[in-house]
Amino acid sequence: MPNLLAGKVGIISGALDERSIAWKVAQKAYAEGARFVLTNAPLAMRMGEINRLSEECEAPIIPADATSMEDLEKLFRGTQEHFGGKIDFVLHSIGMSTNIRKGKHYGELNYEWFQKTLDVSALSLHRMLAVAEKQDAFNEWGSVVALSYIAAQRAFLDYTDMSQAKAVLESIARSYGQRLGKLRKVRVNTISQSPTKTSAGTGISGFDAFYEYAERMSPLGNAPAEACADYCISLFSDLTRYVTMQNLMHDGGFSTTGISEEMVELLTNSKG
């Protein structure tokens, strides 16, 4: 079914470079007929290549610090002014942990940085949706998707305070999904994605080992960024109108696999 998003307009946050899931979502949304605004924090924009994506997708850029209500108000107002009406979808692909970047293990977290992790990576979703609600920015049957990770439910070494951030993110999606569903029939979901070789993902200590572990554990293997983008597009489309307040696992079966044959063989051989 071509042009799944024909006539739809939205906001895509977090596209840093071509390895970003948000970058691939933008490309696929454009191919499916959507029009959208790209946004990211000014610092992240200086580090990334968003101008190239903007040209490729004919998408204007409105910089916004996701911890600033003023910036987000300008983002949503500017998007509606640009398209001459309300919006249909939002991708929240925002996450940052100074504790991880500085190599702090879980027992020695800097609490000011911890609060910043929660502010940037989770509370930003609440801010975005609160601004959208106040501006009545969504068309009916709109869709919000935020990217999460299974560390919200399980303990993973080296993911430290981002585990709590993802748990809060998923909780906000449920609570705001209930609210926006009643107000405007807008649905809000999170996608719990396989470990993915993005610029952010590969910055985590031990990432390569865990990526290989998840690959061996998942019956279908790790879901690549392109497949995650396809899933996002399906959730933006009218084909998923009654899916809301869900944390949707997109991980090749990792989350429901006890142990795989590959892992059994690996452990058995290592003892030999």
UniProtKB/TrEMBL annotation:
Top-level taxon of the source organism: Bacteria
EC number: 1.3.1.9
Keywords, alphabetical: Fatty acid biosynthesis, Fatty acid metabolism, Lipid biosynthesis, Lipid metabolism, NAD, Oxidoreductase
UniProt pathway annotation: Lipid metabolism; fatty acid biosynthesis
An individual GO BP term: fatty acid biosynthetic process
Protein name from the UniProt record: Enoyl-[acyl-carrier-protein] reductase [NADH]
Family: Belongs to the short-chain dehydrogenases/reductases (SDR) family. FabI subfamily.
InterPro entries: Enoyl-ACP_Rdtase_NADH, NAD(P)-bd_dom_sf, SDR_fam
Residues that coordinate or bind NAD(+): 14, 20-21, 94, 166
A GO MF term: enoyl-[acyl-carrier-protein] reductase (NADH) activity
Coiled-coil region(s): none
Organism: Hymenobacter lutimineralis
Reaction equation(s) it catalyzes: a 2,3-saturated acyl-[ACP] + NAD(+) = a (2E)-enoyl-[ACP] + NADH + H(+)
Enzyme class: oxidoreductase
PANTHER family xref list: ENOYL-[ACYL-CARRIER-PROTEIN] REDUCTASE, ENOYL-[ACYL-CARRIER-PROTEIN] REDUCTASE [NADH], CHLOROPLASTIC
Active site: 149 (proton acceptor), 159 (proton acceptor)
